[in-house]
Amino acid sequence: MTTDPIRLSQLSHGGGCGCKLAPAVLRELLAGQAAAQAFPQLLVGTETADDAAVWQVSDDLAVIATTDFFMPMVDDPHAFGRIAATNAISDIYAMGGRPIMALAILGMPIDKLPAAMIREILEGGRAICAEAGIPVAGGHSIDSPEPIYGLAVIGLVHPARLRRNADAKPGDALILTKGLGVGIYSAAIKKSALDEAGIAEMIASTTLLNKVGADLADDPAVHAITDVTGFGILGHGLEVARGSNARVVIERARLPFLTRAEELAEAGFVTGASHRNWAAYGAEVTLPENLPDWQRHLLTDPQTSGGLLVAVASDAAEATLAGIHAAGYPLAAIVGRVEDGTGITVI
């Protein structure tokens, strides 16, 4: 008797950053939480929905702390571990910092998964941490009904090099460093509708570390950085707009996409998170008239281990983009600008 192979993507109700709570739900849960002004050393907390917390230790040193974990959006356990680790470490780079160590977060249905498969997940995470030059120094595990894996990551940054999502300035250009469409590819994987080339493309994108963020923070022309994950390019662009008290303008035609993202979106492959994202923040978004729904889904598509969204002085944008390309991000593109105003507009 043959046994069907275990498909990790079928063991969870959602996958990758598509598992995140919708922005509106998150805001409701956090409403009324005590403010952190009583801790002057807390340079970044929850005020602007930034990527990580930052605590100043001295005049020339601050500690960055973050955690990120989710359920599988691919079936290969080693790839799942690599993607989850890359995604978690990204928050450190998005703040302009460099990671120094990680702790593993593991929840597994031990009655459904063999130990060898769980070890592969852990090994995938360890391999990415080694690529980032950091150890997995410990962690915590539980028996859970769905597979969960991720990391808590600690990093360091000089306070002057800290890059928030809330410091974009009118006149800045916006650069996105990776292609969009990860959630759409994930939806296709769940339905066995993505070929091996597409799966390989998605894994290559989602396991590409956002190391360039630490280098960008050395450039005073770079004013703000965030990474684009579960809320899509519109959601995370809107967080930049809100935090910076400005309007973000996205140019649709300049957005980079994974090779089959537009084709699959038009064919109806979309995640539930894309709908939840639009319901949460659509009222603050201005779209072109008569934009097809499938094109809107590309803008709300939840990214797992997505690229960095970088606000840079317009006169330095081309040189900054060239440097990002040279650092190994071939799909990076100038995708918009920052203006006076509020909200986010797509043209």
Give the topology, please.
Layout: H1 23-30, E1 42-44, E2 53-58, E3 61-70, H2 77-94, E4 98-108, H3 115-132, E5 136-143, E6 148-157, E7 172-176, H4 182-190, H5 196-206, H6 212-216, E8 222-227, H7 232-244, E9 247-250, H8 261-266, H9 272-281, E10 285-286, H10 293-300, E11 308-313, H11 317-326, E12 333-339, E13 344-346
Helix pairs in contact: 2-3, 9-10
The separation of the N and C termini measures 57 Å
Largest sheet properties: 7 strands, mixed
User: Which descriptor suits the 3D outline?
Assistant: globular
Q: Using only CA atoms, what is the Rg?
A: 19 Å
β-strand percent reads: 15-25%
Low-confidence stretches: none
What is the oligomer described by this structure? Answer: single chain
Determine the mean pLDDT.
Answer: 93
SSE string, helices as H and strands as E: HEEEHEHEEEHHHEHEHHEHEHEE
Strand order of the largest sheet: 8-11-7-12-9-13-10
